[in-house]
Amino acid sequence: MAVKIRLARHGAKKCPYYRVVVADGRMPRDGRYIELVGRYNPLTTPKTIDLDLEKIDEWVAKGAQPSNAVAHLIDIARSDAPAPEKKQKLSKKAAAKAAAAAEDAE
């Protein structure tokens, strides 16, 4: 049985939050899982990462493989640094409006 530590998506449309779960690799993304080991909410500022690192270490010792996203969250949780924020890219309209405001200010 290939056991994985991965994210399970919950929440409403366009308002996701994630549970970090230990699940059989053959189960669906949001399906049955073995154990809940944490939570991740990307919508809060700063992003909320709540992981039980002791349980995760036990599962990794038993042979569970963390997904790429979960491995990144584990690294962030171990470093005790806030999750890195992505730069917000302005839309074309917002960029044009900002450029027009800058020209008017001059």
TrEMBL record:
Any one GO molecular-function label of the UniProt entry: structural constituent of ribosome
Pfam families: Ribosomal_S16
Source species, domain of life: Bacteria
Residues covered by region (Disordered): 81-106
Keywords: Ribonucleoprotein, Ribosomal protein
Annotated PANTHER family: 30S RIBOSOMAL PROTEIN S16, SMALL RIBOSOMAL SUBUNIT PROTEIN BS16M
Protein name, entry field: Small ribosomal subunit protein bS16
